[in-house]
Amino acid sequence: MDLPDESQIRWILRTIAALLQHGAEPVHGLVQPTAEFFPDPYDGSPKAVAALMLRVQEHAGLQDLEVELAVVTPEGQASTVSCSSGACGGMPLSTKLERVARRDDGGYRVALSAGELRNPTVLTTALVRAVSFMFLSEACAFDELVPPDREPAVDLAAVMLGFGVLVANGSYLYAKGCGGVQVHSATKMPVDELALALAVYCRLHGVPDRIAARHLDVTPRAHFDESAVWASSNAALVRMLRAAPERIAADDFVIGASRSWLARALGLGKRRPSRTPEDDLRALERELSRVDEGAAGAARPRPLDESKAKKLAEIRALVDESLGS
């Protein structure tokens, strides 16, 4: 699996540094799609959707926000669900709702299609992205982003808030249709970029790679495995996200090559300058000079190691022979 190109890696790192400065930190660690994090039974009902929304808010530390869900059917009918109470309402709403809209009372309205309720991965990704949008809005982080970067930044904020596994799975979805298997995405960032962001998150928060990989689907996991190698190879650069965010923001950093742990341990993959004949000659001159100075200036010259003395004698003989010819 290929990594994102360097320009995208740089954007990811710059945006992560900015998000960290706005407080994008996990509340409950790395959130996994398991009963530990989502214990509420899900049956597709409005009440279950409301409970899931509130659970995502809690994992992001935004459970105090008032959120109203709008579920729109294919026929254009809509109903609202109050996440704070779990009650269902029948008030008709416009079908032309944005995914997330700010209400006049300071709360938020989140629009979902009825079809999204049938796919747990799609639904969870939609709710996570909605909550990440709320975080960016509450933190006033959108003001520092150019419009084209705002939607991808929602995905990146989701990763930094601890939802990296969920959005990575939501970024690469297989769907069977009349034309065969198709791939869809419920995110704006592609799977390779989200996998790299997840690897950076793990390195930042000391999460073992195997923990993150455990609940990743096949393709996201393959990208994550490659990204984890990159993050380990660039551990110093990842630390710079906290230690020197101003350098990251200024694009003042160097991205290292991606090398396996064995290559790093053995020092493989690093180019070493080759020795030239001039280097060998200078080394020989320094060695002979130290021997001559020791013999002339010391009352008791330090005896040379027998093997070293023999080696130097051979070198002297070769030099004398060369000069004589």
Describe it.
With 325 residues, the chain is α+β, with helices and mostly antiparallel strands. The protein has 12 helices and 6 strands. Strand 3 (100-102) and strand 4 form a beta hairpin. Helix 2 packs across helix 3, helix 3 runs antiparallel to helix 4 and helix 5 crosses helix 7 (218-233). The protein starts with 5 loop residues before the first helix and ends with a helix.
The SS-based structural class is: alpha+beta
Helices and strands, in order, run as HHEEEEHHEEHHHHHHHH
Please report the total strand number as a whole number. Answer: 6
Largest sheet: spatial strand order:
2-1-4-3
Q: What's the pLDDT, averaged over the residues?
A: 83
CA radius of gyration is 30 Å
How would you characterize the largest beta sheet?
Answer: 4 strands, mixed
State the shape.
elongated
* Percent in helix: 40-55%
Q: Are there runs of 5+ residues with pLDDT below 50, and where?
A: 85-97, 268-274
Number of helices: 12
Describe the structure using short key phrases.
four-stranded mixed β-sheet, 325 residues, 3 domains, alpha+beta, 52% helix, 9% strand
What's the SSE blueprint?
Blueprint: H1 6-21, H2 46-60, E1 67-72, E2 78-82, E3 100-102, E4 108-113, H3 120-138, H4 147-170, E5 173-177, E6 180-184, H5 191-205, H6 209-213, H7 218-233, H8 235-243, H9 245-249, H10 261-266, H11 277-297, H12 306-324
Parallel strand pairs: 1-4
Antiparallel strand pairs: 1-2, 3-4, 5-6
Helix pairs in contact: 1-4, 2-3, 3-4, 4-5, 5-7
